[in-house]
Design goal:
With 269 residues, the protein is of the alpha/beta class. The protein has a single domain, classed as 3-Layer(aba) Sandwich (Rossmann fold), CATH 3.40.50.1110. It is 33% helix and 11% strand. The chain has 9 helices and 7 strands. Strands 3-2-4-5-6 form a 5-stranded parallel sheet, sandwiched between helices. The protein has a two-stranded antiparallel ribbon with strand order 1-7. The longest helix has 18 residues. 58% of the residues are buried.
Length: 269
Amino acid sequence: MARRSDRGRPGADSPAAIRRRRRVFPGIALGTMALGVIGLLVILPSVSSACQPVTTSSGASASKVAAAIAPGSRVLIVGDSYTSGRGSTTGLHGWAQDIVADRRWDAKIDGYPGTGYVDTGRTGSSHYTYGPRIERHAAFDPQLVLVQGSQNDWLVDAEMLQARVERTLRTAEQTWPDAVVVAVGPSAPQPWAQSTTGVAASVSAGAAAAGVPYIDALGGGWFTAANSPRYQASDGAHLNDAGYQYLADRVAQSLDELAGPADGDEQCA
């Protein structure tokens, strides 16, 4: 069976609309297959889309998250072709570049097409999976670590993927004990999004086991049949410039929500 390649993503609302909502409340974010599903911004336990607990891992209070996402913060983003920007006008400007510019972060962006927690990409080398790439940035000492994707892991056994996700995120936590680590799940446009449900379930479960917040674009319905044509690249699997900005805005909203209410409080729609 052929190895899966990254898929693109589009959005449900315009970036401008999202920014308008962001002023009202703190906000709520690669390509192809699998099976399983969870709900909205998941920081276990999962709840209905109407009311979500805004809690973080034991080592990441709301105030700590707020400091980690503030302008000037050191941020490491590791991911696949969505992070590298495939599908954009230049092919080099994805959601990671957009959110870094919007938030004015001091960031390192490590995006490599075709890779995942297990998938090695076209190199075939395990040095290109997320774990080893995270370790190579040890000297950077980030305040925030965003690990994006896993859509390329669609051929991986669910339990194996969950275990690798947990191990990778724990590696990040152990490498930088004072950093906030967040996992961003698959964020493909429709109809590709529906094929990532299993991958999303494994990443969510692995993040929960590691005590790491999980941002669930699939469960949140960020990319729909209605908005996907507006945001997807010509290959139907990646995002265009507008799609990447939309995804950046939604991830930023999710981080804002993590930094909003005090631990244990609830943010209800």
